[in-house]
Amino acid sequence: MAANLHDIATSGEVVIQGATIHYQGPNGPVQVLSATDLTLSSGSFTALIGPSGCGKSTLLNAIAGFVRPSGGTIRVDGRPVTGPSPEVGVVFQQYALFPWFTARGNIEFALKRFGLSRAERREAALEALAEVGLHGRAETYPGQLSGGMKQRVALARTLASKPKVLLMDEPFGALDAQTRVSMHELLLRVMDAHRSTVLFVTHDVDEGLVLADRAHVMSATPGRIIDTLELGERRNRSVDKVDTAYIANRNRIMGLLRHREDEPAAALPRRATA
Amino acid sequence: MTISLAQSDLAQSGLAQVGRTLLSIGGVVAVWWLIAASGLVNPDLFPTPDAVWLAAMDLYQEGILLSDMGTSLTRAAIGFLIGAIGGVLVGLLTARTRVIGFALNPLLTLLRPIPAIALVPLAIVWFGIGEGSKYFVIAYTVFLAVWLNTHHGTSSVANTYIRASRSLGASTPREFFEVVVPAAAPHIVAGLRMGAALAFLSLVAAELSGASSGIGFRIQEARQFIQTDRMFVGLIELGLLGAALDLFFVSLSRRLVHWEHL
After folding, report:
1. CB contact under 8 A, B182 and A98
2. Is the CATH code 2.120.10.30 the one for domain B45-261?
3. The ABC transporter domain covers which part of the protein (chain A) (predicted)?
4. ipTM score
5. Could you tell me the CA-to-CA distances from B37 to A25, A87, B32, B47, B52 in Å, in that order?
6. How do residues B158-176 score in pLDDT, each as one tens digit?
């Protein structure tokens, strides 16, 4: 295929073709993701927006190598995903920081794969903390940090392992609204420097629209992508300014999500058995 | 700033704790003394606190008090070390190796209800009346407790830690030593604390039948002469040593798994 040549030439490109995912339920396998095609082009910022249970986190887990698709292929730079890899970094909603390491220790954990000297590793970890505005907190344990600070350490830790693809699973879902806005600004600033391909999973429509170049809207039972919106260059938008295009996009997604919720329940089983 | 504040809080609550403990012990001794002095009980069967104190001083001057304590603590420590090291190693193995875990877990369920004292006769037949049989009984009970807790802690490590570790490129040995073991550490330390208490219980079981020294033997010996004051000395020794041991393990746990106490 011609597409394969292109895959090898780029970096951090994710190509998903016909991926389906089933879970083993008590009454046999349950489909959580119906055949899905999705391409995350190198350096793009994509949001996956949908209600809970629509399979958006499952899709992310499959790209991360945590969950094996039951059909189809997921490739990163042309290579099939066979398991977790530092090429594909993950930021979890529950931070997943190691509470037994300090903030610096957590970041050094990610740096250990580069074979740096102890001093170099320490230096790099302190730099990574400074980048997320936590240079004074290097020797602090996660248990002593606020939720927003924890997620900043987690972001710094994941970026320290230099992933080509960054997967974020509702990373700011547990934070209050104020902290969330400042995290959005921080994320955009940091990603300008790192240039990984980003997949950002959220149920918050505004969050997706503020951060991403492209948004996919998902629906449940079984999980699938029902719409894709091109949001244009992020440079032309700002976190605190809303224009008419933004409102139009927001209305469109809200309409889609509301429409799905309002569907008569009788219509659901037919699709569920598909 | 926050840390120094927390420390002064700790010091204050520590002081209050000591005060409460002394008050409580003083109350118990007072009640004990009142009952013993009331004339309602036979002082040969229920000695007064001062009679127990005099018996303790006697034992001390004979050199028996400290040597018994030394003997018993050494037995408990050696048995504990054997059992604890074995329990941690086997627990890590059974939790991370699915096949071994499947094979051994039913065995664990069968062995757990067997009390230490029931093992003493068998231990004497196997290892003789010397130190070997004591180590065996103590090590066995410690082993079970530590194994169970280590196995539980190690097999219930949160999946997100494992996922985070793998997607950060950690090798399997690094995942084991830097993620699985510290994540299981609070359970392992709890197992060690429980093991230390059990080491003490089984020590006495082992010493009550078939020993010629140690606190348990001294209690048994006093029975033959109906020296209840000496028995009380032995019991109080056991209580104090057990409590001190537990306090030691609590402070050890605060150091070893300090992040659990943030």
Report:
1. yes
2. no
3. 16-247
4. 0.85
5. 71, 79, 9, 9, 13
6. 999 999 999 999 999 999 9
